[in-house]
């Protein structure tokens, strides 16, 4: 089972690759907004539809420039949910979650 996990999932070092690459590389395309650690089945990041399986696991490739898939609201609800969860976990409230408005 451990062998299977090593094939499918990232190590801590591999998981940090995209964050480190984003922080230190200065030769990324200016339009890059998302890096992922898995090899993508498509060859041109803007011409092929995303392939969800390879967003979560697959062959490790270091970092790959790609376009993130976002919900129709551009992730607004997901951001709000994350913010609320962080407030609940930490016990800190900035009052923003109560005033959240979709029109903002």
The oligomerization state is: single chain
Rg from C-alpha positions?
17 Å
Separation, N- and C-terminal Cα atoms:
48 Å
Strand order of the largest sheet: 1-2
Number of separate helices: 4
Strand content: 5-15%
Fraction in helix: 25-40%
Would you count the extended β strands for me? Answer: 2
Keywords:
2 strands; 104 residues; 38% helix; 4 helices; two-stranded antiparallel sheet; alpha+beta; 2 domains
Give a topology summary.
Layout lengths: L1 H7 L3 H13 L9 E5 L14 H4 L3 E7 L9 H15 L14
Antiparallel strand pairs: 1-2
What does this structure look like?
By secondary structure, this protein is α+β, with helices and mostly antiparallel strands. The chain has two domains: 2-66, no CATH class; 70-104, no CATH class. 38% of the residues lie in helices and 12% in strands. The protein has four helices and two strands. The protein has helices at residues 2-8, 12-24, 53-56, 76-90; strands spanning 34-38, 60-66. It has a two-stranded antiparallel sheet with strand order 1-2. The radius of gyration is 17 Å and the shape is globular. The N and C termini lie far apart (48 Å).
């Amino acid at each position: 089972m451990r062998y299977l996990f090593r094939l499918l999932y990232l190590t801590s070092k591999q998981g940090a690759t995209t964050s480190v690459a984003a922080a230190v590389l200065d030769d990324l395309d200016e339009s890059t907004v998302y890096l992922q650690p898995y090899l993508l089945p498509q060859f041109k990041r803007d011409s092929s539809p995303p392939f969800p399986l390879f967003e979560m696991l697959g062959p490790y490739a270091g970092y790959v420039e790609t376009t993130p898939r976002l919900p129709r609201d551009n992730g607004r609800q997901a951001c709000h949910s994350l913010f609320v969860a962080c407030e609940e976990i930490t016990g800190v409230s900035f009052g923003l979650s109560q005033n959240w408005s979709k029109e903002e």
